[in-house]
Amino acid sequence: MPARRPARTALAVTAVALLSATAAACGDTGELRGAGPTPTAASPAKLWPDLRPASSPAYPYDVATRETVKGVTIPGDDIRRVDPVDVVEAELTAHPDDYGSKGAYHATVDRMKECRPGGNRARCPLLKPYYRDLTGDGRADLTLGFRLYPTNQTAVRVYTVEGHRLVQVLADNDAIIGVELAGRALIERSPADISGYEYRTTWVWDPGQRAMVFSRDEYLHVGDGRHGKTPSASPSPSPGESAR
Questions:
Q1: How do residues 176-190 score in pLDDT, each as one tens digit?
Q2: Which spans in the chain are helix H?
Q3: What 8-state DSSP symbol labels residue 126?
Q4: Facing residues of 170 across strands?
Q5: FRET partner for 61 with CA separation of 20 to 30 A, picked from 34, 70, 75, 172?
Q6: CA max distance for the chain
Q7: Residue 117, helix vs strand vs coil
Q8: Are the CB atoms for 242 and 131 separated by under 8 Å?
């Protein structure tokens, strides 16, 4: 099942660093100047050492998802020869609770019909596929995205080939501003609940779990409230790999 991200709430803007303006003096000759007394280094102070540790996580979160895709063949074990439409339709079939008539993303099913030859491509929810080695096995993996109608969310999926089978190794649904591939990491950008900020979630390959796992969630100041230009879903290909 796709990972369900818990509702994230901005705790306080006190986490934002307010940079004081340190203007350079006019007529600065560039000479070295003393910075004043150096403060004494202090080790971190451990608060509440007797606090009883929590016995369970604050909220459930699937840090990894892994699922074999049924009904999709891989000609020559070449993931580039797999039809992305077949891959998405296999997920729609496998998860009726999400995509059935009463599912949260039920409208996606009818929209996917437009992705076939003769359909209205403007209504097709499937985004351009990208190919890059994210698992480190030297072979290209498949990164897919498709809109989840009638919501404003986007599904982000990563697939690899193992034992002649197509395996989904990342599944996340979120409101997406942009997606980036950086080396072997996948980074999602999502809107925050305070204007001028956004979340950036990083997923990386974990050999132990054989899946892309959640590794970092950052809350960043990005400007004056207007999100910048959405980056391309793939930067320049890494050596030996192409992104399409």
A1: 999 999 999 999 999
A2: 84-94, 96-99, 107-112
A3: B
A4: 158
A5: 70
A6: 74
A7: coil
A8: yes
Q: Show Cβ contacts of residue 219 under 8 Å, excluding neighbours closer than 6 positions.
A: 10, 15, 192, 197, 198, 199
In this prediction, residue 33 carries a pLDDT of 67
Please compute the mean of the pLDDT values over residues 151-172 and round it to a whole number.
96
Rounded to the nearest 10°, the torsion over CA 193, 99, 170, 182 is -50
Which two three-digit tokens encode residue 217?
């969630």
Instruction: Please answer whether residues 65 and 209 qualify as being in contact, where contact means their C-beta atoms are separated by less than 8 angstroms.
Output: no
Instruction: Specify the 3-state DSSP secondary structure of 218.
Output: strand
In the chain, count H helices and then E strands.
Answer: 3, 10
φ, ψ of residue 168 to 5 degrees: the values are -85, 125
Structure tokens at 68: 């074999």
Encoded tokens for 164? 């002649």
35 falls in which pLDDT band (50, 70, 90)? low
- Cα–Cα distances (Å) from 179 to 47, 58, 235, in that order, read 38, 27, 10
* Alpha carbons 66 and 233: distance in angstroms, whole number: 22
- 211-162-2-192 Cα dihedral, nearest 10 degrees: 50
The more confident residue out of 19 and 94 is 94
Please, which residues have CB within 8 angstroms of residue 236's CB and are 6 or more apart in sequence?
243
Tokens coding 27: 């007529």
What's residue 63's pLDDT?
A: 65
Q: Both tokens of residue 200?
A: 């950036």
96-118 residue pLDDT tens? 999 999 999 999 999 999 999 99
